[in-house]
Design brief:
The structure holds two protein chains of two kinds. By secondary structure, chain A is mainly alpha-helical. Helices cover about 60% and strands about 5% of the residues of chain A. Chain A has a four-stranded antiparallel sheet, covered by helices on one side. Chain B has helices at about 5, 10-15, 35-45, 50-60, 95-105, 170-185, 210, 215-225, 245-270, 275-280, 290-300, 310-325, 335-345, 350-355, 395-400, 410-415, 420-455, and strands at about 75-80, 85-90, 110-115, 135-140, 140-145, 190-195, 200-205, 360, 375. Classes of the chains: A mainly alpha, B alpha+beta. Chain B: Its EC number is 2.7.7.-.
């Protein structure tokens, strides 16, 4: 397998491997996981972009940026290896169920499509076609003369400029380009479709998808029959954790500048807390109590926001003692807070919960944690959002995303509506929401914590 | 069997103890003597072309050539609908004789043909749904089903199950458009068109390439043919927005649609004759100034020309207005085409074509509601096909009786009107198909031999 090398220096896009066979490379166990995580970040961000309805140009731009940000290796020559290794690791991760396979196939195919489109030269594209053994004959000049009127007609019918004598067309059996045939985007004659160079993408992508689809089934078989058992102490735990992992920063170490004092809390809750934390905060103020799930979710969040242990204790004490008394607070709740900060028990410094974790929790009676976009009724959600300042137009977009179970996107749209600003990266973590919010407010020349 | 004999029927039937029963009186519209299971039994006994169907479905595998797959015919699914609506799926047979005796014994009111599966359908329960050893379709003709009831919104002479010579040209259009595209665009050669027995036509594309198409590929061909999109809730169901038509649509328009619309349907359906009808056309033209002007002309009720039919006159006026450039709107010419497409362009049942496991009625079945035989239609002379003159079961049996009962099936066929259809089936479809199958088999067998030789030589 010969991966393509770009001849251009400084090309942000790595060469375009086709992942035909697993490479005989050695990789450190650490890199096994790290490479996969970087690639997964790219795929998840793409998935995000697609569900937000980004058009093809926006997606191309997004992919270019994502590859630049995540898939480069300190040694440029290693870029390709990282690309290949990360793909094959993710095959293991995502071959295991029908749903996982479907998602992975869909994202990898999309990634391949955009990377193919980002290839700058026709030579590169033709080289990829050759790699796929697409032995399509370019239409000869003589034949072109005979069909150019029809080709022109097709071009006009799909809103494209008419072809010139320099344009290359390929003669391809019609059954290999079902997409183009179905939409009448090609001239077909005696079983052959005349495909324009810019339509070649469709060909290549179809092949890529078909190869990968079959490969995933085979990988799954190998996984269940031998690999999973063989690797149960080494790779298997990594593989099983990867498909559900959150991939962003963990916000366990708040930045130095981000110190929050108790007196600021009310204001920043109103201006910069995501809905889930706002709700918990308001409930705490209202009831002077929160159940365990809520204490964990809000408590860790506040730690990530920059609330020091002593301030946290004071804050929770001030609220809880109004309900249970100061003595009971010290006895039953203070320990838990210190535990969250890693000062008790096994001293794990717990990380604030990511959206993924919060969304998957199951709040019961009397609970207020979890993701409101998932767990609130439509009525309650609308009311809560409107109190946050989400306008009617944005409200409908948000509710639409909720109905389609894109909770994080709904939260992102909420963020955008409330701050009148875009959030391209999408919300994946409540502390990210907070930080981004503060950034915007500060850049509007507000003091930290003000609104 | 004459009607008198038939009336003695029930007693005989009970004694015989077979599944055939007394004449169906609950047929609804159809006359009792057109179709009943006695006639059908006789038909299966004397006329139904078992060996032709067998030869067709074997695609050359019933021969002695070493390349023949002896299991091929046995992996084909047939299904029977019996007279009490009992439906038997996954029927399979290993020979023409087995097929014949099963049909004669069960006397199905309808026979459907399904795909060729990976294994004998009778053994399907032994195989998994997924994984290595599956029970799955591996070959199936590319099929199309066009049903007149899908055109109810554009025909005024009949509706629902009825069909007459005024609306039948719509089927002629469908055959011409699709047949030409299948041959010229897709390169298929072995195509059989069949009258469905009542209100439509079926198409069987039997080239090897066609039989091996995947569901996705079939769907892409069906989509290539699709123009009409909409339902009773949309005003416009055909939308041809671009500055030029795809060559396939353009050819269909100039070679078939325009002609049949203007020469036949415009008049026979009285498309512009009344206010209700012309308003429907005007609804397809979004340009107010045009529709207002036309409405003005037509509401006058004064015909400028006495000799010309009012539909023709109005259509000319409409075309004139949209094509002359008098009105400033963009793309007005396109509306003329949209109207013609709406009224004439073929409307396929997409689901039938998209899935390999879809069953379709076998040619030469008899339609229980009309008694008519599902005979092949020659696409080259389809404009002459008359659905009201298709042989019926009772007609055929009468023809047979006139000659007395004699000899083998070949003679019997020739004595009836079915003979012509069978001869056409054999000469225009079956023989060329089998010849081509034989050639393919020989060449792929030789290629395999060559490959083996090559791999053996070091």
């Amino acid at each position: 397998m010969q991966p393509l090398r770009s001849h251009h220096q400084n090309d942000a896009i790595p060469a375009l491997p086709l992942y035909r066979s697993a490479p005989p490379l050695e990789v450190r166990l650490e890199d096994f996981e790290l490479y996969a995580i970087d690639r997964l970040r790219v795929l998840k961000a793409m998935s995000d972009g697609l569900s937000r309805g980004k058009n093809p140009e926006e997606m191309e731009k997004l992919v270019k940026g994502l590859l630049r940000a995540n898939m480069r290796h300190p040694q440029a020559s290693e870029d390709v290896n990282k690309d290949i290794i990360s793909h094959f690791v993710l095959r293991l991760v995502y071959c295991r169920t029908e749903d996982l396979r479907k998602w992975f196939l869909s994202m990898e195919t999309a990634l391949f499509r955009y990377r193919f489109l980002l290839l700058t030269s026709n030579d590169h594209r033709r080289a990829v076609m050759a790699e796929f053994n697409l032995p399509y004959k370019a239409v000869s000049n003589a034949e072109y003369e005979g069909v150019k009127d029809k080709l022109g007609q097709v071009a006009r019918s799909i809103g494209q400029p008419p072809p010139t004598a320099n344009d290359i067309f390929y003669k391809v059996p019609f059954e290999e380009v079902p997409e183009l045939v179905a939409n009448r985007k090609v001239y077909i004659h005696k079983g052959y479709a005349y495909v324009a160079m810019n339509q070649v993408v469709s060909l290549v992508v179809t092949q890529f998808r078909s190869h990968l689809s079959k490969a995933l089934i085979l990988t799954n078989r190998k996984w269940t029959s031998t690999i999973r058992e063989q690797e149960k102490d080494r790779l298997t735990p990594i593989v099983e954790a990867l498909s559900t992992s959150y991939l962003g920063p963990d916000y366990s170490q708040p930045r130095e500048s981000a110190e929050i004092s108790i007196k600021d809390l009310d204001q920043i809750a109103k201006s910069s807390f995501p809905l889930c934390m706002r709700h918990l905060f308001e409930k705490l103020r209202e009831d002077h109590h929160l159940k365990h799930g809520g204490r964990m979710q809000l408590g860790l969040f506040l730690k990530g926001v920059g609330l020091k242990l002593d301030d946290a204790l004071a804050f929770w004490r001030a609220e809880f003692s109004q309900k249970v008394g100061a003595e009971r607070f010290e006895k039953e709740y203070a320990y838990g807070i210190r535990h969250n900060y890693g000062k008790e028990g096994k001293r794990t410094d717990y990380t604030p919960f990511s959206c993924q974790k919060i969304i998957s929790s199951t709040p019961g009676v009397g609970d207020n944690h979890g993701c409101p976009f998932r767990h609130f009724s439509e009525e309650n959600l609308r009311a809560a959002l409107s109190r946050m300042g989400v306008g009617t137009r944005a409200m409908e977009d948000v509710m639409d995303k909720v109905r389609n179970r894109h909770y994080q996107i709904a939260c992102t749209l909420t963020f955008e509506a409330v701050h009148s600003s875009t959030c391209d990266a999408g919300i994946n973590h409540p502390n990210q929401y907070f930080i981004d919010s503060q950034k915007i407010l500060q850049s509007k020349n507000q003091s930290p914590g003000g609104s | 069997m004459t009607r008198e004999e038939c009336e003695n029927g029930p007693a005989d039937m009970l004694i015989d103890g077979n599944k055939a029963r007394a004449p169906r009186e609950k047929q609804g519209n159809s006359v009792p003597d057109k179709f009943n299971s006695n006639y059908l039994k006789f038909y299966y006994g004397k006329l139904f072309p078992f060996s032709d169907i067998f030869k067709w479905m074997s695609y050359g595998n019933d021969g002695k050539h070493p390349g023949c797959d002896q299991t091929y015919f046995g992996r084909r699914e047939f299904s029977f609908t019996l007279d009490n609506d009992i439906y038997l799926r996954f029927q399979s047979f290993t020979s023409a004789a087995e097929l014949e005796s099963s049909i004669q014994e069960k006397c199905p009111f309808k026979i459907d043909i399904g795909p060729v599966y990976s294994v004998d359908p009778a053994k399907r329960h032994a195989y998994a749904q997924s994984g290595d050893n599956v029970f799955t379709p591996v070959e199936r003709e590319l099929i199309f089903d066009i049903d007149m009831s899908d055109y109810d919104d554009v025909r005024y002479c009949c509706s629902g199950a009825d069909v007459c010579l005024e609306c039948w040209p719509l089927m002629t259009v469908a055959i011409k458009v699709i047949d030409t595209a299948l041959r010229d665009d897709f390169g298929f050669n072995h195509i059989l068109w069949v009258y469905s027995g009542r209100r439509g036509v079926h198409c069987w594309v039997c080239d090897r390439k066609a039989r091996r198409l995947s569901n996705e590929q079939r769907a892409s061909i069906a989509d290539y043919f699709r123009v009409y999109k909409g339902n009773e809730n949309s005003d416009k169901k055909v939308s041809l927005t671009s500055p030029a038509l795809h060559p396939f649509l353009a050819r269909s328009y100039t070679e078939v649609l325009e002609g049949i619309f203007e020469e036949k349907l415009l008049l026979s359906q009285n498309i512009l004759a009344t206010e209700e009808r012309y308003e429907k056309i005007l609804d397809m033209i979004p340009d107010e100034s045009v529709t207002a002007e036309l409405r003005g002309k037509w509401q006058e009720k004064r015909q400028s020309s006495i000799s010309n039919d009012i539909n023709v006159v109005r259509w000319e006026q409409l075309k004139q207005l949209l094509q002359s450039g008098k009105h400033k709107g963009k793309g007005l010419r396109r509306y003329v085409e949209e109207i013609v497409f709406s009224f004439t362009y073929p409307r396929l049942d997409m689901e039938v074509s998209k899935h390999m496991n879809h069953l379709l009625k076998a040619p030469f079945c008899v339609h229980p509601k009309t008694g008519r035989v599902c005979v092949p239609i020659d696409p080259n002379s389809c404009e002459e096909f008359d659905p009201t003159a298709v042989p019926t079961l009772s007609m055929l049996l009468e023809e047979l009786n006139q000659g007395g009962v004699r000899g083998d099936v070949g003679d019997d066929l020739d004595r009836t009107s079915l003979g012509k259809s069978i001869r056409y089936f054999r000469s225009s479809f079956l023989q060329p198909l089998l010849k081509s199958c034989k050639e393919e088999m020989e060449s792929s067998y030789n290629a395999k031999l060559q490959q083996m030789k090559n791999s053996l030589s070091w």
